[in-house]
## 1
Amino acid sequence: MSRVVIVGAGFGGLGCAWTFANQVSKDAVAKVTVVDSKDWFTIGGTWAYAWCDRVPVMDTKWNLHDAKPQLPGVEMKLNTTVMSIDTEKKTVTLSDAPNDPTPYDYLVLSPGVVGDPSGISGLDQCVDMYSHQHVERQKTDLARIVTNAKADNATRQTLAVVIAATPYKCPVAPFEAAFVADDFLRRNGVRDTVDIVVTAPVPWPLPDPAKEIFTTYLTEKNVTFSPSVKIKNVTREKDDTVVTFEDDSCINAAAVWAVYPQTAPTFIKDAKLTNPMGFVPANIGTNKITNDVAGREFIFCIGDCAGLSANGKPHPKAGEFAWQMGEMVAHDIGKSADYTHSRLGACIAECGGGAGVLVAPDFTACVLDPENGNPKVQVADKREGGEAYKVAWVAKYITKVFGDIGRVFEPSAVA
């Protein structure tokens, strides 16, 4: 019987642990241990409700201790960091027992990614849109923009949402941020004096089928999209943040919300498990790592940290996909006989006013046939019910992870 160590209690790690606890034969594994450096779970799709003042920031976090009833037989090591991984000895050294490495038969890596602004001078001055610690800063930015716009000596302001590098997790998030900010500023009566700009270092950062619908929303909301511009540096000039691009164009902004370059955590890099882009290369059909390291056949990588592709197209980094990867890996390790895998995701990019764009990539064919399978993408404009769909999606996973005791996510109605 196998000992399984799962690193990370986000979507991927919890999906894997939940599947072991509830769907895999108890005779298949001897022990499942989940390790996470924090003791709370969050869903990034709830954060915009916090920075636009519709829920308290604390309501976007759930206590992981409350997940234990839904994970029978799973050991939870919370507030515990991974210090190192020895793939040859098949051990993980944890902060709670630095002199007593934890052995594994199978290692499932689901630590997520971290933002690394160090390669672009001054980028660390900007909000990291993918850090929960920066949600309060976004809230403060919007409040300051509204206050300044209503002042007697008000001048025109710019909110810039800048993508520093691709790939990045939750590809729709920068556009969602711009659209929700647009809605917030309109509700506060100042949108006419605030410009909103989204920039990307590539021609288009979303699946091609989404371009037409998102372009329509960009036009309707008067949000400028600047493609194929790479950030050179970020500086401060009086009260503005100046983003300068490699073509020497620049944006003077009252606030800059950035997608930092994203990469694997340090302990993953130290174990020599990453590729030059900073992700862990893995087989899309199994999620087993493909690095040339000892014991690689016993190591899986799931979620945002994994570098997956199908026919040259990158696999999207999104919570629902991470959960499904976790399911697949648990059934693989547990040798479940009748399991059929599906890799169909669905996310809503909030557009304000209850509207949303549903983006549903399907990579099932790619997983079943990594060499020949092609991804599919469905995109739908949900002018009515988009927000309700998203809130219901959040509720689905909160209920799955926390059961009936999971706190309901209920953003206040828009006035």
## 2
Amino acid sequence: MINIFKQDHNKYFFAKANKYFNNDKWIHGKCVNRLEKQIEKKLKLKVNACSCNSGSDALMIALTIDRDPNRDIYITTPLSYIASSSIVKFLNLNIIYIDVNEENFLLDLNKLETFLKKCDRKILKRIKGIINVELFGFTNDLHKLKKIANKYNLTLIGDCSQSFGTLFHQQSTLNYYDYSVVSFYPTKIFSSYGDGGMIFLKKKNSFKKAMIIKNNGHEIVNKNNCKYLGFNSRLDSFQAFILLMKLKNFNNLIKKKKIFYDIFTNNMHKFKIPNFNSNLIQNNYLLSFYVKKNIVKKFINYMKFKNIECKIIYKKLLPENKILRPIIPTNMKNAKKCTESLVVIPNHNNISIKIFKNIIKIINEFKSK
């Protein structure tokens, strides 16, 4: 079976780590700071990188720093992994969901703008920010999103866990947000060998605060002085080391993903492919397309018979979870369609170009009747 995700297990990395850690620490190792600086340099960032234990923790740190006692609502998409909403609720904040674009699976900016224009003033005064989720390595018009956020004085948070390396107007999408967060979970395009994450912050004082919050609320050099209420969310040195090793080959990974994407878009004749902003250079983390609801089960079984994993990643909208329900309801018909028809196929780095071409050939040979 050709799976959508394949766990990386590079013996060379382990051998190098075994030698390296004769001279570095497992916690607060030199390689952690080196990773943060190398990522800033590699992606040409205008924001400061602060590593932590997971993408979920990164979002928690962002929301903790952004907290306002008079504004307790965040706007986000209903189509995402649970953490983009559950962390909001965990901090006793409220959510409003805006539907995704009809042409793709991303937050619909026109619907967002319309909602804010027509929003009841009492609710509008409570909205603190927007959490924009960049799914499958793709994102929407970030210039337009920033204009909307600025117009309504809203914080812009980017959940970029799936879009590490994605560019909009020739620069990293991480640069466009007040806070952007990423996950290095093993299934991600840039992944560690365990949990790991990073938060990127525009303001220097916010960066300094994040560094202290993730370290139980105290500075590294002074453990007796608790400056903020924090928690333990340090990225351990081993994961930082693995990520440093992988960063060297990241450009080659992106190039191969681009080859897969070109094969995919030039040869996919059977099903509709989502449409995105022309100023986007995506990392192509996952490749997706729409299969009509009435044949999607048959198609997934057909692919399974051909030993190719194919599935709907998000089968349930976030607000369909009782504990993640929004403060006010909105129409989410496009997002609902995605839970019924948006499928993904394998395109990870361990697949050869020849095998990937065969995957597309098999898809095109599917007979719906």
## 3
Amino acid sequence: MKTAVAFLVYIRPESTKRVWERIKAAKPPRLYLIADGPKTPDQAKTCKEVRSIIESGIDWDCELHKIYSDKNLGCAHRATTGLDYVFEKEEQAIILEDDTLPDPTFFEFCEQLLDKYKDSKNVFHICGTNSYPEIFKDDISYHLTSISNMWGWATWSRSWKHYDLSMNNWKNEDSTKFLRKWCLTESLRKSMLKMFDIHCNNADPWTWDYQWFYACWKNNGLSVIPSKNLVSNIGIGPDATHTKSKTKISMFPKQIQKMYFPLVHPNSDMRNISIEKKYRQREEIPKVRRLKNYIKSLINSFNQFIKN
């Protein structure tokens, strides 16, 4: 392996250990450990424990870059400043977080496509996660779409230079035209409009991925989505930062798959609308569930009205 890995960690030692074992097995030559600081004094010990898991676990020839913060920057600012540093040093990198568990073949998949598309103007992102691998019916290893899944990914400095945490240009966009181009369902257009509006010029954003989606789309950047699910999230539950759930979900998607080599490349470097439509349709909440959620919201609103 020749590509650097950026590893974002915080205060989850157990999931960090699991992801770290996969990184160790891949033996990247350079590792950028991006670690946020504690929110409270009680978290300081856990932050130190998480960092030491990696520091003490390097048993191969690896250049470690410690991108540590003594204070808590928050998810958005920590990731952004950390990756800014990475791409000042590297032309390309693979990015994992402390809850994104990759299959071993994820690293080779990323590395081969980082090399293949390094000079491309229209490919910005390489996904590790594919929540719906069943939509791939042929032997093609991946397709190009606007879907930029963030659970295990890779990119280039040429792409990251367009990233803007404040999304300053969004306020000048024709939002309807822009979102119709990139969002193939009405529900996705509505949700993206809401999130883009929230994050535009937000001095204290809680996440950083919507800004990356905008950077890709603004620059007509497509994403590689693999035919197999190469990365699953192992951190969904009550203690998660963003992927909160009342109950612990051990892994989502449920199965991590391996990629087969040599890769079978698509015949075109154009956006595959057909695959994208199928993927987005599967993301849609079923109508019955939508109806139940709507009824539930009405009941909750009525109960709140009665209380007041």
## 4
Amino acid sequence: MFVIGAILIVLAIIVVIYVTFATRSLEALTIDWGPFTAALTPLQLFFLGAVTILVLAIGAVMFSIGLKSQGAKRAEVKQLRKDVKAKQADTSGANSDSSKRADDAPDSPADASRSGRDDARDQTTSSSSTDGSPTQGAATSEPSASTSPRSTLPPPVPPRDNTPPPRTNRP
């Protein structure tokens, strides 16, 4: 690549020198752009074309670099979103398993004793006399276990980390 670049630079220098000497004796060209008229020598016209092509090449290179960097950003954002979804799925799966186990087991020793009392109360309430009235040992003022309010809130969601990843310049 280095050799090809050096050859192209030498060829460009030769062309510029040739155009400079070959157009010395030529007269100026008149260019009419409506209200604006310009008289340019062929050498000036040649350099104006060269500058135009140089600006076009720089614009094309910048456009290409911009497209590549935007594509890299989009791919990085897409990968990060995938990672976050996978992490949330793992976290929610672990939370749902732990919440099922927490619902099966009593929350504290006080809940265990209360739940045992509720079960005993339900059994004495269900054993009633033939006329349908409850037996005398049953307490009717306290709610039974089936109507006691139980915590049905979903597990807490961990806070999101919204800090952007560190940028790396990739060639």
